[in-house]
Amino acid sequence: MKSKTPLFLLLPALALIAFNSIFPTLYVLYLSFNRYFMTGKAIEMFFVGLDNYRFLFSDADFWASLYRGSIFSIICLAIEVPLGLLLAYIAKDLPRKLRTACTMIFCAPLLIPNVAVGCTWMLYVRGWFSLLPNLLHRIGIHYSLSNPVHAWWTVVAMDVWHWTGFIYLVCLAGFYATPPEYLEAVAIDRAGAWGTFKYAYWPFLRFPLFVGILIRFMDSFRIYDEVMVLTAGGPGTTTRFLSLYTVGKALTEFNVGLGSAVSLVYLYIIIAVCAIFMIGLTLGERR
Amino acid sequence: MKVKTIVSGIVLAVFAFFILLPIYWLVVESVKPLGEVIGIATLFPKKFSLEGWIEGLIKEEFLEFIRNSLIISLGGVVVNIVVGLLAAYAFSRYTFKGNNHLFFWLLTNRMAPAAAFALPYYMIYTSLQLYDTYHGLILCHTIFNLPFAIWLLKGFIDAVPRELDEAAELDGYSFWSYMTKILIPMIKSGIAVTAFFLFIFSWSEFLFATILTHLSAMPLTHALFRLFWRSTTSPWNTVAAMTILSMIPGLVFLFFGERYIVRGLTFGAVR
């Protein structure tokens, strides 16, 4: 049995990941230093050095979409985290059947395709003939997806709809990880609701909640599918996040060199965010 | 105390309403005839009709897209479970130089943003003639599914005591018979959970599906998007019906595997 070395066992996995990750990364790195247009005919490719990067970093659209994405992530987290925590805090004391029902409802959007989330919301808000604009009209709001403010908050609402269940689940796991002895101890001390939360639940809630926030931050930073379906980055560039900017530049403008530079920069921004996540996770585990 | 209970109940009810209202609307829209969907909004269908469902499955050929999605997802499950089991076993049982670094590097690929790989994948897969094929999409989905499989399976293998390996070795089991006769049966529920997640991630994947297929291997997600953006007068009842269809695997898993969801979505960090 020991004759099987780990390398032999790892080889298929490493080969697949290398093909899908290292090879494409090196390829775009190479392309990003060249000027090359994908127009069907074979066109000469020539070396331009850092020109593509220079162009990218002087592109106001790039910085605007980076900024937009960061603001979006912060707003979404600022809504989802307190809301998910509150819902889990309430649901933890419910009788089992009722709690399961709540979990089923809150988590229903978690495992459905992102495109389905986008389609559901498109049907819900699309125009005069659908439900939400109709309801809002009755209370005097003239809702329209082509209004930039409305579009922005619709995308936020869609993200809250999609992912609050995740924070809820993570918090619920934390509440249930709390040993009953802790709860008995604070009950004897008459700690009250806040004291119970702080001294009994919080030590066990802290880590799961932290993991949940980090994963959620990364995911919201990478958001593409739902926004593509619902607004495609519009109206104008209101909801054009970095992922949409990247795909737009890379695949619709035929400028392969620039597209490669954008892809690579986007990749490294996500890797930086991911590194923060990993460091946070290991630090969190140690505490 | 009484007031607190009432307020709590209201909070839960309001949020449940917020979640359920779009889903309710989706279901209602899917059973309205086309004339009603583009007419004035009504909370109930005036005339119940399966027009959207039939139109979508037969005329828009969604039966075929579902078949494509199933082939890609199930094929991917097999590949990722087999390759993932071997790698997860190696990471669980062997310590070698740099194993932690290698493990973390593999995991970071789970977080790889699809948008950054859209352009290189399009160029590479096209030139290797993997464009619009089942195996092309299965191969491409390994970038996020394989690290996930390794991550989750390692957790399940770690829970199997090492003494069992040694006992099996003393009994003269070969590596493969140990794997198939002892290890796999012991962690079969873990494998099932992993497989279900892999299936759902593959089934739901969107960006690679849109750039790497255009006809013969087009999965459900891409087809749904096309149905939707095709024209200004989209057949909304069909869109609603096909959206519901795409949700089925996820909802089934929610029903049976509720307690595993948090583990899967946090990559085993929270149980």
Under CATH, the topology of the domain at 61-230 in chain B can be stated as: MetI-like fold
The H-level CATH homologous superfamily of chain A, spelled out, is MetI-like
What's the CATH first level of chain A?
Mainly Alpha
Shape of chain B: globular
The appropriate CATH architecture of the domain at 61-230 in chain B is: Orthogonal Bundle
| CATH architect. name of chain A | Orthogonal Bundle
Rg of chain A computed from alpha carbons, rounded to a whole number of angstroms: 24 Å
Walk me through what this model shows.
The complex is a heterodimer of chains A (287) and B (271). Chain A contains 12 helices and 2 strands, in the order H-E-E-H-H-H-H-H-H-H-H-H-H-H. Chain A is an all-alpha fold and 287 residues long. Chain A has one domain (19-286): MetI-like (MetI-like fold, Orthogonal Bundle), CATH 1.10.3720.10. The model of chain A has no long low-confidence stretch (mean pLDDT 85). In chain B, helix 1 (2-30) crosses helix 13 and helix 4 packs parallel to helix 7 (134-158). Chain B is globular. At the A-B interface, helix 1, helix 3, helix 4, helix 5 and helix 7 of A face helix 1, helix 4, helix 5, helix 6 and helix 7 of B.
In short:
With 287 residues, chain A is mainly alpha-helical.
Features:
heterodimer, A: 287 residues, mainly alpha, 12 helices, 2 strands, B: 271 residues, MetI-like fold
Topology, pairings included?
The complex is a heterodimer of chains A (287) and B (271).
Chain A: H1 6-32, E1 34-35, E2 46-47, H2 51-57, H3 60-91, H4 96-107, H5 114-125, H6 131-138, H7 148-177, H8 180-188, H9 192-221, H10 225-230, H11 242-251, H12 256-286
Antiparallel strand pairs in A: 1-2
Chain B: H1 2-30, H2 34-37, H3 51-59, H4 62-93, H5 99-108, H6 114-127, H7 134-158, H8 162-170, H9 175-186, H10 188-204, H11 207-212, H12 220-229, H13 236-256, H14 258-265
Helix pairs in contact in B: 1-13, 3-13, 4-7, 4-10, 7-10, 10-13, 12-13
